[in-house]
Amino acid sequence: MPRWLLRSQDLDAFARNRCLLVLSVLSGEQPVTDAVVQAKISRATYYKLETRALNAMLMALNPLTATLDGAKPNLSVATHRLEALQAKVKTLEQEKRRLGRLLLLTRKSLRTPRFPLRRGRPPKDPFSILRPKPRSVSSTAKVALDALSMPTPGGAAGS
Known about the structure:
Layout: H1 3-7, H2 13-26, H3 32-39, H4 43-61, H5 75-109, H6 139-149
């Protein structure tokens, strides 16, 4: 249990015990049955106490509720937070649209090219069709290339 709750002098002992009872059940320290027997209350009374405690916590933590001294609620903090969240939503929506457009363009640019229907096994590299193919060398050029690459009596290739 929280030390501040155990040491607090301004809290009534009865209220403190009930608060500890509800917190021990909510934290899983003990089951409802044991807590009801220990506090000598009915199960319905326990659930009423639990509901009241949870409602009080929600009211205490809500930024729009009035303060303890009865003053008007401080809406400037909540209004500022709301404006900040709305601005964040606007920028996130813009970012989402931008990223969606980039994704669409990326998918379009990476789309596999449409190949003519061929028989047999597809190539391992689907982009091989897009690369320029080496030109075939004519037979006369092959003979000339072979003559250049033949070793000469001096040991060097060609002339």
